[in-house]
Amino acid sequence: MVKWLKDAVFYEIYPQSFFDTNGDGIGDFEGIIEKLDYIKDLGANALWINPCFDSPFMDAGYDVRDYKKTAARYGTNEDLKRLFEEAHQRGIRVLLDLVPGHTSDQHPWFLESKKAEPNEYSGRYVWTTHAFEGIGGHPYISGMSERAGAYMLNFFASQPALNYGWLNRTEHWMSAVDSPEAIATKEAMKDVMRFWLDAGCDGFRVDMADSLVKNDDENKSATASIWADVRKMLDEHYPEAALVSEWSNPYQAINGGKFHMDFYLDHWYNGYNTLLRDYETGGEDNSFFRKGAKNDITRFLDDYLPKYNATKENGYIAMFTCNHDTPRPARTLSQDELKIAYAFIFTMPGVPFLYYGDEIGMKYLDVRTKEGGYQRTGSRTPMQWDHSPNDGFSKGRKEDLYLPVDESENAPVLSDQINDPDSLYTFTKKIIHLRHEYEDLQADADFEVIYGEKEKLPFVYRRGNLILAVNPSDKVQSLHHPVFNCRNIICSINQSEINGDELKMDPSSFLILQ
Ligand code: GLC
Ligand code: CA
Fold it and tell me: Quick one: which of 23, 4, 15, 92 has its CA closest to 399?
């Protein structure tokens, strides 16, 4: 296991929207560099930067045109290397976003692959033989190339699927997973990884990591073995590099694929979804952290505990406040509710990720789609730094901004919160620093549920020798348990009292006992 992950707290940066230093309305590498001291002060010691590579931006950069060249709008390769150096000087690691499942349809590999004349890249993507042949229920495009055949899509129409082979081969054009063309694709991706690791990055967040081998078995074992092979390369040559998968199946990603961490994504009805965003089910928001909801922690625990127990020896489940694909938690939760939610997220096992702007409770905005964002665009708006024009995000013209800033009267702004002892920002910073201070709160310290009953509160859990309790409801909650005897409070939100073995918690409260 990569040691530094034990105490890692990640900050996800959507580079377009973080900080613009040259007034063109788009965030840039220099902007990230200028804010590194801010990030360090907040307590984050690692970054995940969304794709920052050359791209036609049909999917905000998840359509890569050149894996080895940064997008000019963010800066040069040299600027990105300087970002790595400046980050390292402050003890901050940097993960880039690797998109291994597909490229842009403008990638030179694909332009070659489309040619009728067979060449080195003919087998780099998934193609049928005939233009009138479909790909067994998978989305495909035909009629766009001189090459006869249809090509498979991995996501949007602009993102042709790279060819890692098929496990269950039912058609003659399906490559085997050990065919030369499938192996060449894998090796090309390892080459990209080495290129950036040698340049100084500290690892990768891996996009759609489960999407490589087609017609894989139900355990995705063929895809997992590709990652196990990548992991072997890292263990041998880059033992400090970390990989986090967008997979959301830790059995497959951590145990099978040997990823260091796997994201617990917001999928309808899974455990994570019930915490912060349980409102797709029919209007009513039933999230655990919403005051006045049923506050049932068992819906989370029933899903989480088996996953945690089955994978904790091999890697970490990565829980996040939000990401660039997910509605901001402030869409429905108040700043007070968010404090309790973050208290929980940053004291759980595994590795926590904070999405830029969530530390001030930035809202989910109703904005027009940008670069293939669609409903995700509302979580991608510029960081609200201060009350200068464009919320301090850019000195450019308002009409040039990548996306509009939040102009609502009660838009949260960092400069209002940074010196306010009661702000969401101040609490977020406090809980992150506490995690660094107490090893018992870090990635691999023991986790045990002390009291987590259906629709009952408080929810009480143990991390190492610490006891933590959460009451997100609008009522006083109390509980008798021997574990409360002779303990001191080291952190709390609102009032809690201990008398002998009784814990009594005010509405909307949280505490840590030593
Ligand atoms: C992942 C990314 C998302 C992107 C998609 C296709 O889900 O997080 O933003 O659109 O993959 O690459
Ligand atoms: Ca810029």
Answer: 23
Pick left, alpha or beta for residue 61 (phi over 0 → left; psi -120 to 50 → alpha; otherwise beta).
Answer: left
Residue 14 domain-assigned (yes or no)? yes
Q: Evaluate: CB of 99 within 6 angstroms of ligand 1.
A: yes
Q: What is the pTM of this model?
A: 0.98
SS3 (DSSP) at 76: coil
Q: Are residues 80 and 41 in the same domain?
A: yes
One digit per residue, the tens of pLDDT, for the chain of length 514 reads 899 999 999 999 999 999 999 999 999 999 999 999 999 999 999 999 999 999 999 999 999 999 999 999 999 999 999 999 999 999 999 999 999 999 999 999 999 999 999 999 999 999 999 999 999 889 999 999 999 999 999 999 999 999 999 999 999 999 999 999 999 999 999 999 999 999 999 999 999 999 999 999 999 999 999 999 999 999 999 999 999 999 999 999 999 999 999 999 999 889 999 999 998 766 678 999 999 998 999 999 999 999 999 999 999 999 999 999 999 999 999 999 999 999 999 999 999 999 999 999 999 999 999 999 999 999 999 999 999 999 999 999 999 999 999 999 999 999 999 999 999 999 999 999 999 999 999 999 999 999 999 999 999 999 999 999 999 999 999 999 999 999 999 999 999 999 999 999 999 999 999 9
Bridge partner residues of 176 (DSSP): 166
268 belongs to a structural domain: yes
Select from 49, 325, 380 the residue to mutate for testing ligand 1; criterion: most ligand atoms less than 8 Å from CB: 325
Residue 98 has a CB neighbour count (10 Å cut-off) of 23
Domain presence at residue 176: no
Is the minimum distance from the CB of 63 to ligand 1 under 6 angstroms?
no
Contact partners, residue 389, CB within 8 Å, separation at least 6: 395, 398
Which atom from ligand 1 is nearest to the alpha carbon of 376?
9
> CA-CA distance, 440 to 467, in Å (whole number)?
10
Indicate whether 420 belongs to any domain. Answer: yes
With a 6 Å cutoff on the Cβ, whether 167 touches ligand 1 is no
- Ligand 1 pocket test: pick from 59, 98, 267 the residue with the most ligand atoms within 8 Å of its Cβ: 59
Are 70 and 149 in the same domain?
Answer: no
| Domain coverage including residue 458 | 446-513
Ligand 1 centroid to 502 CA: how many Å? 47
- Do both 426 and 416 map to the same domain? yes
Looking at the CA of residue 155, tell me the nearest atom of ligand 1.
6
Q: Whose CA is nearest to atom 4 of ligand 1?
A: 62
**CATH number where 308 lies:** 3.20.20.80
Q: Are residues 294 and 368 in the same domain?
A: yes
Identify the sign of the CA torsion 235, 238, 242, 244: negative
Say yes or no: CB of residue 325 within 6 Å of ligand 1: yes
- For ligand 1, whether the C-beta of 62 sits within 6 Å is yes
